[in-house]
């Protein structure tokens, strides 16, 4: 039996998302000790979760035999109070990626299209393909979203438009003024998704919640994976007008956000000290990387997030050679950037080891 005679045809050529290489996998492949490996590939928080989140999660584990609150009242209520929106304007996801899938379930069908920047998070395109929709990738000169060009690319079949701000993998941003002009012009049949997974790392975060308060056709995506350090628990959220969020709830599986993740997220959300400390080491590490790249004569993209995109020549070759040294970075060929790697900010000790390894490989 040929399974493709029965499977959805759009899946045949779909390339699955390739996550950053796990430490354990590299240790097995190269015969290295896990404790001798540093991972700087997946934009994770090198400090780990908030101590308050850890305490809350340990307590939640004693109730692991009980199903979680399917609507996540405590977490949604805490988010609503923090951002000044109604609890009905928030949906939780198994990571913010799951909410991208909710949006696809809600609005995409074969023949539709979505619009992204050329160098944007690959999951947008993967999800569109999953639902039989096409992806229009708009060039992003200087690696910054060209909002005017994205507007011009909209067709009657466009159902979703993604703006990642800051963008992964480039770390670039568009201004609030540009977003406001864009939102005034985007047609009503398009759902604008503003992915703000890294917004806590921005020195002066933009008030994109105003679009929600104004009832615009917008969904903001945010996550606890980055500054909160809860990537392993997969917990994120979407914020939008209540009518729009109600549609997304209809696409959600029961109990999609587990109880331990919800408990950790509530506690971590209130731990400003941990978030401030994370931002401080991120700012210091990002500055260090940029200074070192400049000293080596390596072009890089000025970043507003917890990573830096740097041009190293043959990205895949550098990636492999750094693996041999126990340093995991992210090759960028899947983003059509074969000469680049993306390096996440770690502790300063990790940052210095990463730079020393890169210098040795490049002969710098």
Quick rundown:
With 364 residues, this protein is of the alpha/beta class. It has helices spanning 23-30, 51-61, 73-83, 96-107, 122-130, 147-152, 176-185, 209-213, 242-250, 259-269, 272-296, 315-324, 348-362, and strands spanning 38-39, 90-93, 113-117, 134-138, 158-164, 191-195, 218-223, 236-239, 300-301, 307-311, 327-328, 330-331, 340-344. The protein contains 13 helices and 13 strands.
Structure description:
Keywords: Amino-acid biosynthesis, Aminotransferase, Histidine biosynthesis, Pyridoxal phosphate, Transferase. Residues 36-356 form the Aminotransferase class I/classII large domain. Pfam families: Aminotran_1_2. The chain is of the alpha/beta class and 364 residues long. The chain has two domains: 19-47 and 273-362, Aspartate Aminotransferase, domain 1, CATH 3.90.1150; 51-269, Type I PLP-dependent aspartate aminotransferase-like (Major domain) (Aspartate Aminotransferase, domain 2, 3-Layer(aba) Sandwich). Helices cover 39% and strands 15% of the residues. The protein contains 13 helices and 13 strands. The strands form three sheets. Strands 2-8-7-6-5-3-4 form a seven-stranded mixed beta sheet, sandwiched between helices. It starts with 22 loop residues before the first helix and ends with a helix. The mean pLDDT is 95.
